[in-house]
Design goal:
Biofilm_reg_signaling, alpha/beta, 8-stranded mixed beta barrel, Alpha-Beta Plaits, TIM Barrel, Diguanylate cyclase, 3 domains, elongated
C-alpha cells in the first residue's frame, strides 16, 4: 500500500500537477491508512515564517491562524521542529508549554497530541509534516515508517517547486538590477484595473548610458544601470519598478499618487540626478520620462502606447524632463511616433528604396547627375515619399540608419550601372547631423563605395546648414575637409533658407550651393526673389562655387535662370524622382540613341539625397 502511494505521488510530481493538490492527495490517503489522525504540511519561507500548504481535514480558521507564524523554540510542535531541524513529539497539547499559546485552537477540534517532523533537503528546512492525534499519545513504529516516506515525498515535491519557482523568477527578473524585466512588467500591468484602483505609468529612458559606456567602458555602464535600478526600487518597490531592457525603465504609479504624475516624475528625476560611482568614476545619471494616466475607457495597451508617445515627445523636445500624455497633444505625438515606427519597421524589413531625380544642364537638358531620394515601400507595395515620414528623420539614430541604407543602395545601383556600361555622372548623398557624430563619415562613405568597386569621387555629399550650427561647427568643418580630401564634392542644400547661409560660405569649404526651391517658385512674381537669386549667382561665380537651382517647374523659370547665368538645375520640368529600374531603362535608351519611351517630365539624369 505504501509503495503504491509513493509511486502515485512521484507520478503526480513528475507530471507537474499542482503541489498543493498532490500533497492534499497524500494527506487524505495517509489519513485513510492510519485511524484517528489528521495530517498537516507547512512550508517555511526564507524569513522563517510558516505557511499552510496542505491539510484537507484541518478547518479553515485553524489554517489561517497559523499561516505566517514565525518558527522558533517553543512555538508549537511545528514551529519548534522547523527551528530545531528535528522531530518534536508533544503527547499532551493541554499541558505542554510549547502549546500554551495555541491550545485554545487545537483542543476544541479534538487535537490532543501532535507529532511534527521537519522536511529537510540539502541541509535546509523546507517545511514540516505533522500528525495530529485525537488521543494523548506518540507515534507507533508503523506510523514512523509512513511519516518517513511522506517527508521524503514532500521534500521531492518542494525541491521541484523551488526549482520551478527559481526558473520563473529568472524568467521574470532582470539579472543586472534584480528588478522585474519586460516579461514581469507585462504580467503585472495586464492585471491593473482602474475601476478598483487608479493607476498611471511612467516610462524612463536614461540619457547618458551610451556616453558612459563609450567613455568609461561597459562595466561603468552596468554600474549605472544597477544604481538606477536600486534607486527606483527603493522609491517604488519591487512590484512597481521594472527594467524593460537597455536604458529603459518603467514605474507603475498606483492610487492617489497617479493624480499628479508630474510630482512623482519630478521625484524620480531628482533621485536619478544624484551622483554615483561607476567603475571608479563619478557619474551623474540623467533620464527623460513620459507618462500617462489610465482612464476608465482605456485598455492597458492604450495606456502603454500613450506613455510611449509622451516619452518619444519628451526625448525630442526636452530631454532630462517629463511630459505627460494629454488628449490635446495626442494626435501630434501619435503622428510622430507612428512615423518613427513606420521607418524603423521598413528599415528592418528592407523596404526603404532609393529613387533618383536628375540634375541637368539647363541649356541642353543633358543629365549631369542624380539626387537620390528615400522612398518607403509599404507592405502592400505602395511607394511613399519621404515627405510623409519626415517626422522620423528628427530622430538622430533613425536618420543615420536611413542615410546608411541610402548609401548602400547607391553603391549597389552605381555598380550595376557601371557593369551595364551606363554612365551616371556624380551622385549626391544627403547626410544628417547624426552622421557627423562619430567623426568617421568620410571613412564610411569611402568604405561603402570602394566595397562596391566605385570611386568615392562619384559622390556629392549634400548637407544643410542646420548640421553645423552651434558647437558642432568645428567638428563638421574638420570632417568636410576629410570628405573633400577623399575626392568627394560638398554641396550646401536648401541654400538661402537659413539665417547664416552667407556666413557659412566664409567658414565652410564648399563646392556647390543648391538654391532652395522657395526662391525659384517666386522668381516670376516677386522682385526680391529675383534680386536675391541674381546676387547669389554673381557671388558664387566670384567664389568659384557651382550653383544648382532646385524646384524648376516651368520653361519660364528655366529661361530666366539661364539668362541670369545659372547653368544647372533640377525639378519636375525635367523629371520627377524615378525608381532605379526606370533610371536604368532611360540611360539604356539614351546610350542606344533612342529618345522615345519616356513619360512626361522624364529625362535620364543624375545626384542623390536621403532626406527629401
Amino acid at each position: 500500500m505504501l509503495i503504491k502511494l509513493q509511486n502515485k505521488i512521484l507520478e503526480k510530481i513528475a507530471k507537474g500537477e499542482p503541489l498543493a493538490e498532490t500533497v492534499d492527495y497524500l494527506c487524505r490517503t495517509v489519513e485513510a491508512m492510519v485511524d484517528d489522525t489528521v495530517c498537516s504540511v507547512l512550508t517555511l519561507d526564507d524569513f522563517g515564517r510558516l505557511h499552510h500548504l496542505s491539510g484537507p481535514s484541518i478547518p479553515k480558521h485553524y489554517a489561517q491562524a497559523i499561516d505566517g507564524l514565525c518558527s522558533g523554540e517553543g512555538v508549537g510542535s511545528c514551529g519548534t521542529a522547523a527551528h530545531r531541524g528535528e522531530p518534536v513529539i508533544v503527547t499532551d497539547i493541554e499541558t505542554h508549554p510549547y502549546w500554551a499559546a495555541f491550545k485554545g485552537l487545537a483542543l476544541p477540534l479534538g487535537f490532543l497530541a501532535c507529532w511534527s517532523t521537519p522536511i529537510i533537503s540539502g541541509g535546509k528546512v523546507l517545511g514540516t509534516f505533522a500528525f495530529y492525534f485525537r488521543k494523548k499519545r506518540g507515534p507507533s513504529e508503523v506510523e514512523q515508517s509512513i511519516v518517513s516516506a511522506c517527508v521524503h515525498l514532500c521534500a521531492i515535491g518542494l525541491e521541484r517547486e523551488m526549482r520551478l519557482e527559481e526558473r520563473r523568477r529568472l524568467a521574470f527578473t532582470d539579472v543586472l538590477t534584480g528588478l522585474p524585466n519586460r516579461t514581469g512588467f507585462n504580467e503585472t500591468v495586464i492585471n491593473e484595473d482602474v475601476t478598483r484602483n487608479p493607476w498611471g505609468l511612467l516610462l524612463i529612458d536614461l540619457d547618458n548610458l551610451k556616453q558612459v559606456n563609450d567613455t568609461f567602458g561597459h562595466q561603468a555602464g552596468d554600474d549605472l544601470i544597477r544604481t538606477v535600478g536600486k534607486r527606483l526600487q527603493r522609491m517604488s518597490g519591487s512590484d512597481t519598478a521594472f527594467r524593460l531592457g537597455g536604458d529603459e525603465f518603467a514605474v507603475i504609479v498606483r492610487g492617489t499618487d497617479c493624480v499628479d504624475l508630474g510630482y512623482h516624475a519630478a521625484y524620480v528625476l531628482a533621485a536619478l540626478k544624484e551622483p554615483c560611482l561607476c567603475a571608479g568614476q563619478t557619474v551623474y545619471p540623467a533620464g527623460t520620462i513620459g507618462g500617462a494616466i489610465a482612464r476608465k475607457d482605456q485598455t492597458v495597451d492604450e495606456v502603454r502606447q500613450n506613455a510611449d508617445f509622451a516619452l518619444y515627445e519628451a526625448k525630442e523636445r526636452c530631454r532630462g524632463q517629463f511630459i505627460e500624455y494629454t488628449a490635446g497633444s495626442g494626435s501630434k505625438i501619435a503622428k510622430r511616433f507612428r512615423s518613427f515606427q513606420q521607418v524603423s519597421e521598413a528599415l528592418r524589413e528592407r523596404r526603404i528604396k532609393t529613387h533618383y531625380q536628375p540634375v541637368v544642364d539647363l541649356a541642353t537638358g543633358t543629365p549631369i547627375g542624380f539626387e537620390a531620394l528615400s522612398r518607403l515601400a509599404t507592405r502592400n507595395g505602395d511607394i511613399v515619399s519621404a515627405s510623409h515620414f519626415h517626422e522620423a528623420t528628427t530622430d538622430v539614430h533613425l536618420a543615420c540608419a536611413l542615410t546608411a541604407c541610402v548609401l548602400d543602395n547607391i553603391a549597389r545601383d552605381a555598380r550595376d550601372w557601371l557593369d551595364r556600361g551606363l554612365e551616371f555622372g556624380k551622385i549626391g548623398l544627403n547626410v544628417s547631423a547624426g552622421d557627423f557624430l562619430d567623426g568617421n563619415l568620410a571613412q564610411r562613405i569611402v568604405g561603402a563605395m570602394e566595397g562596391a568597386g566605385i570611386s568615392p569621387d562619384r559622390i556629392v555629399v549634400e548637407l544643410t546648414e542646420s548640421i553645423y550650427l552651434g558647437n558642432r561647427e568645428r567638428m563638421v568643418i574638420d570632417q568636410i575637409k576629410q570628405i573633400r580630401e577623399a575626392g568627394m564634392l560638398v554641396a550646401l542644400d536648401d541654400f538661402g533658407t537659413g539665417f547664416a547661409s552667407m556666413t557659412h560660405l566664409l567658414t565652410v569649404p564648399l563646392d556647390i550651393i543648391k538654391i532652395d526651391r522657395s526662391f525659384i517658385a517666386r522668381l516670376l512674381v516677386e522682385q526680391p526673389a529675383l534680386v536675391i537669386v541674381e546676387g547669389l549667382l554673381a557671388m558664387s561665380k566670384s567664389l568659384n562655387i557651382r550653383v544648382i537651382a532646385e524646384g524648376i517647374e516651368t520653361e519660364e523659370q528655366r529661361n530666366l535662370l539661364m539668362g541670369m547665368g545659372c547653368s544647372q538645375g533640377q525639378g519636375y520640368l525635367f523629371s520627377k524622382a524615378l525608381s532605379r529600374d526606370r533610371v536604368t531603362s532611360m540611360m539604356s535608351h539614351r546610350r542606344s540613341g533612342q529618345t522615345h519611351g519616356y513619360g512626361a517630365g522624364e529625362l535620364p539624369l543624375f545626384s542623390l539625397s536621403a532626406s527629401q
